[in-house]
Amino acid sequence: MQIADCAWRIVTPQVTCTTPNILLDYALGTILATSLLLILLGIGMFGLTLYTPVFVQGVLGQSASRSGVVMIPRVITTTVILIVVTQIIARVGSLRLFLIGGTGVMRLGVFLLTTLNTGSSLWLVAAYLFVTALGMGTVMPVATLAVQAAVESRLLGVATSTTQFIRSIGSIMGTAVMGRWWRVAMLQS
C-alpha cells in the first residue's frame, strides 16, 4: 500500500505539469521497455558490486584485498566496452543489435555467476564478471540512446534524467533484493 501511495505521489504531478522532471507520457513504449531494462541493469550492477566481494570473502575465504582485486576486470571492461560501443553506434547508427546482444551477454554472465561454489577460483569469478561486464557496458549507453532517440530535442534532458532515475531505482531494488537473498542463504547454511 505504501509503495502504491508513493508511486501515486510521484506520477500524478509528472503527468499533469507542463515541464516534467520524469518523462512518463511521451513515446511510452520505448520509455517503458527501456525503464524495465534499466531497472534490471541496476539490480544486476549493484547486486554484483556489493555482494561479489562478500561472496569472495565469506564463501571462498579470501582476503578483503583479493575480493576487491577480483572486481577490477568488471570495472575496466564495463568502461572500455561502453566507450567502444558508443563509438561504433556513432558510426553505424543501429541500436537494436547492441541492445539485444548486450542483454544476452549480460544474462549469460549472470547465469555463469550463479554456478560459482566453494571450489571456484578467483580467476573463474573474474572471468564470469568479465562476461557480465561485456553485456553491461553494451546495454548502458544503448538504453540511454534509445530513450533519447524516442523524444523531441526539447525533452532530451528530461529523457536522460529519467533513465538515470530509473537506473537508480533498480540499484536500490538490487541492493535490497540481493541483501535479503544473501541473508536467507546464510541463515539456511
Describe the structure.
- The protein is mainly α and about 190 residues long.
- It has one domain (about 30-189): MFS general substrate transporter like domains (Growth Hormone, Chain: A), CATH 1.20.1250.
- Helix content is about 80%, strand content about 0%.
- The protein contains 7 helices and no strands.
- The protein has helices at about 1-15, 30-60, 65-70, 70-90, 95-115, 120-150, 155-189.
- Helix 2 (about 30-60) runs antiparallel to helix 6 (about 120-150), helix 2 packs parallel to helix 7 (about 155-189) and helix 4 (about 70-90) runs parallel beside helix 6 (about 120-150).
- The chain is globular and about 55 Å long.
- The two termini are about 35 Å apart.
- The model has no long low-confidence stretch (mean pLDDT about 80).
Quick structural gist:
By secondary structure, the chain is an all-alpha fold. The chain is 81% helix and 0% strand. The protein has helices spanning 2-16, 28-58, 64-69, 72-92, 96-114, 122-149, 156-188.
Please tag this protein with its features.
189 residues, mainly alpha, Growth Hormone, Chain: A, 0% strand, globular
Count of extended strands: 0
Mean model confidence by pLDDT: 81
- How much is the radius of gyration in Å? 18 Å
- What is the CATH superfamily? MFS general substrate transporter like domains
CATH uppermost class? Mainly Alpha
Major sheet attributes: none
Estimated helix fraction: over 70%
Q: What's the helix and strand layout?
A:
Blueprint: H1 2-16, H2 28-58, H3 64-69, H4 72-92, H5 96-114, H6 122-149, H7 156-188
Helix pairs in contact: 2-6, 2-7, 4-6, 5-6, 6-7
